[in-house]
């Protein structure tokens, strides 16, 4: 995220959850959802108002009334400068605490930045496993937020979260990484075809309209995710049998 700086004119109201300040943007572009540093503490810019109306951003040289989250708002003083910080400037504890509040999507203009950060830490084998698992949960939450922010629907909505969930199960086992059967059941519910019907369409997939080809490719991705956790399913389990049927079809799909 680009760096922005806000200079405090006055604190209009404040309590233990945050408050409202009149500020001037003295650098960059201030956007709803940015996080600002006050020493070791963090403030979230939740809402911007100009001329009595909410706006998504304002740039250098302009004044606005901003709604901030964080008890430190009450301690801000006139002339103090707040500097926005990038996602990798946040501690894991702070990110977990922030996500636990169920923040609206407007609080995160670029959810993929958080997803990329969390996935990187999740996959870093030099990091203790317990910490990698925590980053995995952050990555999963960020991935769901990406799908919601981008309006992803249907099978595509489950593809990226399944990648994170499958990785956690494969790396840390079903006890700590998640329930492989539950993951497969959820992915199967996203598929609107039977294996037989998919195989039939696959025979002439080059003649299909592009949206249909993309749909079949997305199903193939979901099958790949299920195949990763198939070793953890008990033979004879109906879910395992269905997964096996789809795995057999996968090579024929585009």
Structural account:
This protein is α+β, with helices and mostly antiparallel strands and 254 residues long. It is built from eight helices and nine strands. The protein has helices at residues 92-100, 111-122, 129-149, 155-177, 180-190, 195-202, 210-229, 238-249, and strands at 5-15, 18-27, 29-31, 35-38, 41-50, 53-55, 57-59, 63-69, 81-84. A six-stranded antiparallel β-barrel has the order 1-2-8-5-4-9. Strand 4 and strand 5 form a beta hairpin. Helix 4 packs parallel to helix 7 and helix 7 packs across helix 8 (238-249). The radius of gyration is 23 Å and the shape is elongated. The model has no long low-confidence stretch (mean pLDDT 87).
Set down the secondary structure blueprint.
Elements: E1 5-15, E2 18-27, E3 29-31, E4 35-38, E5 41-50, E6 53-55, E7 57-59, E8 63-69, E9 81-84, H1 92-100, H2 111-122, H3 129-149, H4 155-177, H5 180-190, H6 195-202, H7 210-229, H8 238-249
Antiparallel strand pairs: 1-2, 1-9, 2-8, 3-7, 4-5, 4-9, 5-6, 5-8
- SS elements, strand count: 9
Cα-atom Rg, whole angstroms?
Answer: 23 Å
N- to C-terminal separation? 37 Å
- Amount of helix: 40-55%
Strand content: 15-25%
Helix/strand order = EEEEEEEEEHHHHHHHH
- Major β-sheet annotation: 6 strands, antiparallel, barrel
Q: How many helix segments?
A: 8
What spatial form do the alpha-carbon principal axes imply? elongated
Instruction: Tell me the structural class.
Output: alpha+beta
Cross-sheet strand order for the largest sheet: 1-2-8-5-4-9
Report the mean per-residue pLDDT as an integer. Answer: 87
Low-confidence residue ranges? none
């Amino acid at each position: 995220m680009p760096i922005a700086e806000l200079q405090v004119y006055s604190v209009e109201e404040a309590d233990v959850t945050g408050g409202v300040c009149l500020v001037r943007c003295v650098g960059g572009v201030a956007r709803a959802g940015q996080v600002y540093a006050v020493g070791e503490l963090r403030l979230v810019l939740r809402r911007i108002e100009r001329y009595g109306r909410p706006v998504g951003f304002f740039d250098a040289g302009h004044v606005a009334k901003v709604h901030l989250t964080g008890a430190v708002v009450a301690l801000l003083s006139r002339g103090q400068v707040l500097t926005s910080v990038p996602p990798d400037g946040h501690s894991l504890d702070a990110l977990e605490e922030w996500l636990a509040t169920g923040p609206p999507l407007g609080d995160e203009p670029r959810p993929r930045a958080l997803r990329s950060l969390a996935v990187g830490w999740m996959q870093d084998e030099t990091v203790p496993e317990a910490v990698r698992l925590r980053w995995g949960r952050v990555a999963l939450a960020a991935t769901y937020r990406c799908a919601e922010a981008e309006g992803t629907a249907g099978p595509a909505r489950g593809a990226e979260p399944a990648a994170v969930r499958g990785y956690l199960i494969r790396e840390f086992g079903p006890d700590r990484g998640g329930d492989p059967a539950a993951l497969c059941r959820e992915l199967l519910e996203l598929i609107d075809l039977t294996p037989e019907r998919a195989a039939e369409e696959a025979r002439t997939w080059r003649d299909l309209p592009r949206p249909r080809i993309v749909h079949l490719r997305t199903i193939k991705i979901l099958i790949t995710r299920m195949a990763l956790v198939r070793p953890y399913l008990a033979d004879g389990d109906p879910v395992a049998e269905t997964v096996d049927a789809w795995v057999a079809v996968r090579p024929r799909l585009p």
